[in-house]
Design goal:
Largest interface: A-B, 45 and 48 residues
Helix content of chain A: 40-55%
Structural class of chain B: mainly alpha
CATH superfamily of the largest domain in chain A: Response regulator
Number of domains of chain A: 2
Structural class of chain A: alpha/beta
Shape of chain A: globular
Strand order of the largest sheet of chain B: 1-2
Helix content of chain B: over 70%
Largest sheet of chain B: 2 strands, antiparallel
CATH architecture of the largest domain in chain A: 3-Layer(aba) Sandwich
CATH topology of the largest domain in chain A: Rossmann fold
Number of helices of chain B: 12
Radius of gyration of chain B: 20 Å
Distance between the termini of chain A: 86 Å
Number of domains of chain B: 1
Distance between the termini of chain B: 34 Å
Strand content of chain B: under 5%
Largest sheet of chain A: 8 strands, mixed
Shape of chain B: globular
Number of strands of chain A: 16
Oligomer: heterodimer
Order of helices and strands of chain B: HHHHHEEHHHHHHH
Radius of gyration of chain A: 25 Å
Chain lengths: 455, 303
């Protein structure tokens, strides 16, 4: 009797299981990518959309000297989520934001894995820097959950680690576009300059920034020579000796890739040591500390690159999205948005578009692979304007630059509108007329160095 | 060095001292705590950072209220004093239990406190780098060999030397100093002779913490306050401690000046090897004189 009951129970469970598996199979049948070609056109029956919220995992620095980066990413993700949720979510699903602290590459990789395995996130994003980006790349492709990198400039990732990414996107600037733009600005704005010196942080980005700028200058202004390159450690508090040494080498241009508190301290001590009176400072990424650059720190007339977004561009009267974004961000966080903010916002918008497009196509809640394919090769609009997305998942960003000004309307140093310019993507990757075959293109096997050599 | 002109050498020495004194003010308190209370205080960097953040808050508000530079100057002392108060609060809660215990305990406990302090500061003050350069810029620059040099650096030199002198006077010329040296040598005997060692330790602890706070406060106008700054500061301060000798006050001055000057000349002469130069000194000292330049002998056998 007992045995009988248990066998019947077993059969019941098994029956339920088989039924469940059948439902599952029919649901996934339509979403497999092989089905794309077979699907009939015309109106389709829509599959069931889950009601659970979509989870967005932000991994970035939330402690230590780089915490300003994580804060910018998280704040703008919250803003994007609120905007999306107020509009009814993504296909009716709310967007929920959670965060984990990044650190050294092993810590960051663990954060990414735990996001997927424990928190079961639907997508991830964050500015984690170049070496962390290199470390997570194989994991992201293996875990099959889309990851949108902000900033995280690294050439190695696209050239060696993941030449054909599917799940990995980068809404930040392409490779190291800044050094090329810096070289373009230096060679056109200061044609008489001959001597260049560097004060750059001693880590991958600082080294590559100086190296690639010199490489680009070697082509655009071969008469320029590097007279002194100093390498203060990241997060140094004393630049006085570097400034003294650099001034001793009598440079016409000083290039710096210092950012955050480093740039604040460098400028402050530079002012006291007469750095700005004797040379032209070109700051590649000092704008990262946008909100800390008060007028007593940074004088007028300093050349600054703004990576890929500057909060006053596009002008607010011409581009309401940017006006809304800046005003809302300032209202909520009492800060002006940095470039990470634009990158995060447009990444989330790209994901939303991707989900909606893939849903239309597969006729049900799409799988991650479908979403990613539906984002590649499209475009998205963010506070900084429209951005094309390549088939490699790279958002193509123009690079704004300008010289500093003390505008009484702002408590911080801003760019003089008369000097603000954009180096469009085409110009970043084609600084002087070259045969089309030599244009840099991701995924063709041409390395960044080869390409610059070919100018 | 031969290729450097006299003016450059002067500048390099002045810059080296500027950096050296920041290390000195941190390692001085570290050595004071280790020499007398046998505490390796990793959280010292956190108190240094707290000094910078507190002073930023005071200076920013004083400046916005339109107060003169002299008031901003007072902010430095008030900031340091507040850090001392913070130390006084934390002493009975945590540190008192660690006095004269094995170093592992204080290392672990104070490292934990360091993390807590850093996160609390970030929570309160945010994660943006904070700057209050009014004093630094307000005092202005003077010309040395026809080149501008910030006058505020001389304020820092004067401060550091003042702290060193007054601590020396305190320890060797006052009754408090006599008691301090006595308790450091033999706590039980001092208690038996009627010294309230517990109260005395609190005083010493507060002093050591306030000096770290002063370090953060006095350097704030020339740098910026940001989360994690304590970690950056503490590493090289430990290097200074080892080079100068654990627990030696004289050692922290000598160690800091050596590290500061080696770093400055290293940057000028071999910019590629900036950090390596500093750690080379550490290696040389550890190989040839493991107890540090002014440290006590570890054992009778050691010469």
């Amino acid at each position: 009797m007992k045995n009988d009951t248990s066998r019947r129970d077993w059969l019941r469970y098994a029956g339920a299981g088989i039924l469940g598996a059948a439902i599952g199979a029919s649901a996934t049948y339509g979403t497999s990518p092989e089905r794309y070609a077979e699907r009939p056109t015309g109106p389709r029956t829509k599959g069931v959309v889950p009601t659970a919220p979509i989870k967005l995992g932000i991994v970035s620095w939330f402690s230590g000297p780089s915490a300003m980066v994580g804060e910018a990413c998280y704040n703008s993700a919250i803003m994007a989520a609120d905007a999306i949720n107020a509009g009814g979510g993504i296909l009716g699903r709310r967007l929920e934001v959670i965060k984990r602290d990044a650190g050294a590459p092993d810590v960051t990789v663990e954060a990414v894995r735990r996001f997927v395995l424990e928190d079961k996130v639907d997508l991830m994003a964050g500015d984690i820097g170049g070496s962390n980006a290199n470390a997570i790349t194989p994991n992201v492709e293996q875990l099959k959950v889309p990851f949108f990198l902000q900033c995280s400039t690294t050439v190695k990732m696209v050239e060696e680690l993941d030449p054909n990414p599917l799940y990995l996107f980068r809404s930040g600037e392409q490779n190291l576009a800044e050094p090329i733009v810096a070289a373009q600005i230096i060679s056109t704005k200061y044609p008489d300059a001959k001597r260049i010196a560097g004060i750059n942080p001693d880590y991958v980005y600082g080294r590559e920034a100086m190296g690639y700028t010199m490489m680009a200058l070697g082509k655009l202004a071969p008469h320029m020579e590097s007279v002194l390159e100093t390498w203060p450690p990241l997060f140094a508090t004393d630049y006085t000796t570097h400034i003294t040494s650099v001034l001793n080498s009598k440079p016409d241009i000083v290039l710096t890739a210092c950012w955050g508190g480093d740039f604040v301290t460098l400028c402050k001590q530079g002012t006291a040591y007469g750095l700005f009176e004797k040379t032209h400072l070109v700051s590649i990424i000092g704008a990262m500390a946008l909100n800390s650059l008060t007028k007593d720190i940074l004088p007028e007339g300093v050349d600054m690159l703004q990576r890929d977004y500057y909060f006053l561009q596009p002008p607010h009267n011409l581009f309401p999205l940017n006006k809304w974004f800046v005003e809302e961000y300032h209202k909520r966080f009492n800060k002006y948005p940095e470039f990470d903010c634009h990158q995060m916002f447009s990444a989330i918008m790209a994901y939303k578009q991707g989900v909606e497009r893939a849903y239309d196509y597969v006729g049900g809640w799409p799988e991650n692979e479908d979403v990613c394919k539906a984002i590649q090769g499209t475009s998205v609009v963010g506070p900084g304007g429209y951005r094309a997305i390549t088939n490699d998942g790279q958002f193509l960003n123009p690079l704004p630059y300008g010289t500093t000004k003390h505008d009484p309307n702002y408590p911080i140093v801003t760019l003089d509108p008369a000097t603000v310019g954009f180096v469009p993507v085409e110009a970043v990757y084609n600084p002087k007329p070259v045969p089309p075959i030599l244009k840099y293109k991701l995924g063709t096997g041409m390395t960044y160095s080869d390409w610059m050599d070919s100018w | 060095m031969l290729s450097m002109g006299f003016d450059t050498i002067t500048f390099t020495i002045l810059n080296g001292l500027y950096y050296a004194f920041s290390l000195f003010l941190i390692s001085l308190g570290l050595n004071l705590l280790y020499g007398i209370l046998r505490i390796l205080n990793v959280a010292h960097g956190g108190f240094y950072a707290a000094g910078a953040f507190f002073t930023w808050y005071l200076m920013k508000n004083a400046h916005d209220a339109g107060l003169p530079l002299s008031v901003l100057f007072v902010c430095v002392f008030v900031g340091a004093l507040l850090v001392g108060v913070l130390g006084m609060i934390l002493e009975p809660l945590l540190y008192k239990r660690l006095y004269r215990k094995r170093e592992e305990y204080s290392l672990l406990a104070t490292f934990g406190l360091m993390l807590v302090l850093d996160d609390v500061l970030r929570l309160v003050f945010g994660s943006q780098p904070l700057s209050a350069g009014y004093l630094y810029a307000g005092i202005g620059s003077m010309q040395i060999f026809g080149r501008p040099f910030p006058i505020y650096n001389f304020v820092i030199y004067a401060f550091a030397i003042g702290v060193a002198l007054s601590l020396w006077l305190l320890l060797f010329k006052t009754n408090l100093g006599r008691i301090t040296r006595a308790t450091a040598q033999d706590t039980e005997m001092s208690s038996a002779l009627g010294v309230n060692t517990s109260l005395h330790y609190t005083k010493l602890f507060t002093l050591a913490i306030a000096i770290a706070g002063l370090g953060g406060a006095i350097y704030l106008p020339a740098t910026s306050a940001y989360p994690g700054m304590g970690f950056e500061a503490i590493v090289l301060s430990f290097v200074v401690m080892v080079v100068g000798g654990l627990g030696s006050l004289k050692g922290s001055l000598i160690g800091a000046v050596i590290i500061g000057l080696v770093r400055a000349f290293g940057i000028s002469l071999f910019p590629e090897f900036e950090l390596a130069a500093v750690f080379a000194i550490l290696v040389i000292v550890l190989v040839f004189r493991p107890r540090g330049l002014c440290g006590r002998k570890f054992s009778r056998e050691e010469k």
